[in-house]
Amino acid sequence: MLPKRVSPNRRNGFTLIELLVVIAIIAILISLLLPAVQQAREAARRTQCRNNLKQIGLALHNYLDVNRAFPPAFSLGNGPGGQWSLHARILPYIDGVNLYQTADLEQSYTAGTAPANVRVATYLCPSDINDKPRGSDYYPTSYGYNGGTYTVFTHSSDTVVVGSDTYILGGQLSDGSFGPNSNTKIRDFTDGTSNTLCFAEVKAFTPYIRDGLDGPAAAPTDLSVLTAGDFKADTGHTEWVDGRVHQTGFTTVFTPNAITPITDGTDSAESGDFTSCREGKTPCVGEPVRAAVTARSYHTGMVLTLLMDGSARSVSENISLFTWRDLSTRAGGEILGEF
Question: What residues form the membrane-spanning segments (predicted)?
Answer without folding.
Answer: 12-37
